[in-house]
Recover the amino acids of this structure.
């Protein structure tokens, strides 16, 4: 795929494949990361207690301070013994039970030949034992003896070895991990109480448009409430960032320029919505030319065709560049372009190793009309059909301004650039909203 600079003039006229746009964004973010590292900003790391580390990005590999398990222990409730006794032609083995080992309460005696120890799951393997026969495979011969068929197991079975999960000094969690509940549990299991994570990105948001009203104000004729800042706030909160809300900006060049400068001064990333469609882009473009390198893209996708992207560099008093996304104004297009472009860029900029949201597939319950030559994101509901197979149904009208169908949906059906109409029963790609949107 060809590499594209965001202010390449070709982008102003021709339609860009979503993959090309993603590649251009990722390349630019990579450049910013290198720039920031050479300016010494790579040390933007803070240490936080485990209970505050959820959704943060791990800044350095977490090396395990201990072996896990710390010592050999039993994987089953049963009887521990020296597996040497299995080296016989007898099918039936009989052992004398000389005591019990509990989890957290080890048995310190020695187990001799012909003897065994009743043992609980997680209890330390007693000295001289290397094998555990599960309780259910044994029969009590009398109060003190068990018998079992030796074909049930081989030497070393049902024993967890010291360091089997993780060896001391080896990476338990790699740098770049977006920390999930299991990672916090894993760190705790190693006795680690604090983690080194990346500083939260500062992301400024603003809405542009003369027609926008603030919540709490009466809705005058021709006005609409500004919803984009709220959906963007929700989307950003999923990523645990610091949000700087710069409010609504009117459609006049001076206010817009002042607002962009103020927002860029405070933030690592600026996300605006509105003002990039054909009718309005001209003065936005002019401002952007003064403030930085920003391309105005027509992306071959629906919804979300117009989008501006680049960096603001000429910000007085600020040496580092601010990443800029000028999202379309339509409420659904804002969410789709965020999902498709902004989310991964924010994660990448903050050092995350995994930036792409997971995709899965489901059977389309109905035919879907689709034009080849653009990527489409249709709002849909994922469920199951009578056979228990995952099926997906589009939520009615797909207009880019219809937020209700977005609110009712639980996933996107993503129809690729070259794909044509979908027939009922075809498998389609889907992206679940849960945890993402
Ligand atoms: P624009 O990209 O500015 O031409 O806006 C496209 C459409 O989205 C228009 O119908 C706008 O009224 C609407 N729109 C723009 N900004 C917002 C916003 N912040 N909240 C809700 N709708 C918006
Ligand atoms: Mg507008």
């Amino acid at each position: 795929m060809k590499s594209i600079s965001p202010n390449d003039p070709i982008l102003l006229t021709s339609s860009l494949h979503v993959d090309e746009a993603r590649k251009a964004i990722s390349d630019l973010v990579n450049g910013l990361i290198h720039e920031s590292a050479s300016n010494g900003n790579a040390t933007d790391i803070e240490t936080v207690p485990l209970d505050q580390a959820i959704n943060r990005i791990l800044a350095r590999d977490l090396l395990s301070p201990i072996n896990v398990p710390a010592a050999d222990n039993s994987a089953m409730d049963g009887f521990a013994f020296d597996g040497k006794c299995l080296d016989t032609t007898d099918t039936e083995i009989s052992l004398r039970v000389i005591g019990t080992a509990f989890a957290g309460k080890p048995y310190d005696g020695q187990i001799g030949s012909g003897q065994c120890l009743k043992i609980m799951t997680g209890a330390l393997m007693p000295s001289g034992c290397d094998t555990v026969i599960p309780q259910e495979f044994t029969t009590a011969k009398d109060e003190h003896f068990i018998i079992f068929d030796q074909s049930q197991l081989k030497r070393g079975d049902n024993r967890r070895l010291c360091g089997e999960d993780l060896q001391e000094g080896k990476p338990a969690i790699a740098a770049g991990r977006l920390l999930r509940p299991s990672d916090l549990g894993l760190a705790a299991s190693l006795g680690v109480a604090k983690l080194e994570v990346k500083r939260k990105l500062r992301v400024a948001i603003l809405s542009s448009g003369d027609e926008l009203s603030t919540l709490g104000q009466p809705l005058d004729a021709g006005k609409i409430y500004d919803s984009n800042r709220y959906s963007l706030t929700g989307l950003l909160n999923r990523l645990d960032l610091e949000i700087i809300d710069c409010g609504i900006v009117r459609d006049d060049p001076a206010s817009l320029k002042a607002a962009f400068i103020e927002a860029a001064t405070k933030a690592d990333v600026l996300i605006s919505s509105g003002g990039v469609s054909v009718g309005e882009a001209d003065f936005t473009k002019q401002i952007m030319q003064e403030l930085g390198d920003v391309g105005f893209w027509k992306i071959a996708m629906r919804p979300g065709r117009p989008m501006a992207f680049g960096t603001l560099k000429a910000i007085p008093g600020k040496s580092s560049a601010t990443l800029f996304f000028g999202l379309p104004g339509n409420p659904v297009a804002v969410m789709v372009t965020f999902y498709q472009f902004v989310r991964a860029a924010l994660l990448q900029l903050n050092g995350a190793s995994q930036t792409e949201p997971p995709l899965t597939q489901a059977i389309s319950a109905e035919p879907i009309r689709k034009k080849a030559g653009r990527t489409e994101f249709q709002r849909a509901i994922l469920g199951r059909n009578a056979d228990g197979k995952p099926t997906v149904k589009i939520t009615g009208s797909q207009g880019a301004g219809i937020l209700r169908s977005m609110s009712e949906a639980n996933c996107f059906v993503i129809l690729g650039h070259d794909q044509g109409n979908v027939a009922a029963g075809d498998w389609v790609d889907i992206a679940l909203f849960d945890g993402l949107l």
User: Anything to note?
Assistant: The first helix runs from residue 10 to 13. The chain is about 20% helix and 30% strand. The pocket of magnesium ion (ligand 2) is lined by residues 209, 274-275, 280, 329 (CB under 6 Å).
